[in-house]
Specification:
With 417 residues, this protein is of the alpha/beta class. Helices cover 27% and strands 27% of the residues. It has eleven helices and 19 strands.
Length: 417
Amino acid sequence: MEKVHNMKTENGEVKEEFKAYTDGSVCGYESLHHLLKENLKPQHFQEVSRLLLGLNGGKVLDTVTHSESATALSLEHDFDLQAFCFRADREQLREPRVVRVGLIQNSIALPTTAPFSDQKTAIFKKLEPMIDAAGASGVNILCLQEAWTMPFAFCTREKRWCEFAESVDGESTQFLQKFALKYNMVIVSPIIERDINHGESLWNTALVIGNHGNIIGKHRKNHIPRVGDFNESTYYMEGNTGHPVFETAFGKIAINICYGRHHPLNWLAFGLNGAEIVFNPSATVGELSEPMWPIEARNAAIANSYFVGSINRVGTETFPNPFTSGDGKAAHADFGHFYGSSYFSAPDASCTPSLSRNRDGLLISDLDLNLCRQLKDKWGFRMTARYDMYAETLAHYLKPDFEPQVISDPLLHKKSS
């Protein structure tokens, strides 16, 4: 819906001041890409897209034709479906290493006031056709959004939402294992983990389910926000799993969960451990982070010579009891709009258009992993980095008597005669 704000001029005329679109759209369009495409001349749109999305091997990203069954599922269940292809140069000594990867973004399925079991079951039911569409499209690795089994209730600081937490072999894992087996697919499942062996502590965890239905391993979120409504340390603290890279049948993958994308060294560590694809399952809202969203993951892909898949949930989630942000403003019952806009970034600075800002969606991309090494060879970031110097700086910084390396102008504080 469109909300119009009017103001009167000095002569009494009413003019439109601005429009706020309460459906989460961008001026009535699903994404910035759609807005530009519909309002620019074709030649202008082509040039703007080149500047915004980059080029892959000197060319615009190719689109991939959807399977009939995936298209039918997207139409029947009303989710955005897009597919692209990142290419690498043909090598003489290595065959192409193409892997098909999928990202799913979605809104919750029932109001937050519904019984928890009903909410969880409804989300499973909503995701089933989207996962089937990924399977029908031949997706090899699929990643879901952060805390996909529940509303993102961590703003409320109410402990009852802890009921959604589950063990690594819990209900959601069992739900996904059947798809992993059916479609020969690796699935990354970000959940709230209940650590049965350590006092039932909670963690924000991403499980990696192998294409044989086995649990390959897990990673726990390294950085926990304490920003505005994102009071997540009420529920879980910083993870203790380091920066693991999981070697799967389709490539080496890692998971940088949500807030970790704001920390460049977090991205770096996954690269140092050999990641070829890093997923960033997230839950973030427009007012807080949207200008940063198209930049951080793309920069990480460039700086670390790997692919990044960024996923953000969709919709506005309203909770029964109002909560405050600790900023003196009035209590409110929602975070704001989760703006979706999931996308892929490549090490050559190219990226896909994003999924819808206000609809569920499945984004599929073919990634030639050979591109990772080719960009390492081209730019030499690993070779030219000064890790020894950085390590020395960090070691000094951690000492209680650390002093910044600042050289002041000797004339800066000299009194004039």
